[in-house]
């Protein structure tokens, strides 16, 4: 085998890897180009999803928001030559790396490849629609279902053993610790506490609703009383007007009678 042929099949980010990546992407369909880019096999787990609006990879699928879609496709670069350069940065212990972070490394295999190979590989990735060059890979078993083989892949390392916390950014650590923690059976006391808390909230809600109804009824009564008072005022005024009219008529009659009496006296 010639020296040139040996260089072609040497593990690492070589020219051969760039050519393979270019050929692979060129033959992909438009639908398949909307994919995850990763550098170890654990990213293929079904716990990873693609956030369209933020152009990031997330852990669990949140069905209430349509911007979260399953990441059904992936381009995986398996480069075990990193194990020769740095023990904690290999295909088994790798947690989170991006193309930009990889450029900071002086060499990527025992032959000391130049960073121009990374630039070429990055250029091939730019043809993908996802633009997700920051590759999130989590080498762990978040629950028992991940122990089952999926696509001839079975996890062999755990969170502690993989040493992932050294490389995961703070934001991703919070996501893993809060959202992606292993499922633990809830204690009975916690279940009771949650039940009574929800019951109290429900009763408080009912009380608030009753208070609102009471306030509404009070307002209606006040309006009715106001209408009655106005009606009474109108009735009283009408009675007074009638009384005044009767008095005026009586006075006129008295005057008429007095006049008639005077006329009679003259006769």
From TrEMBL:
It holds the Pfam family TNP-like_RNaseH_N. Keywords: Coiled coil. Residues 207-249 form a coiled coil. It comes from the Eukaryota. InterPro entries: TNP-like_RNaseH_N (IPR048365). Residues 12-80 form the Transposable element P transposase-like RNase H domain. This is Transposable element P transposase-like RNase H domain-containing protein. It comes from Popillia japonica.
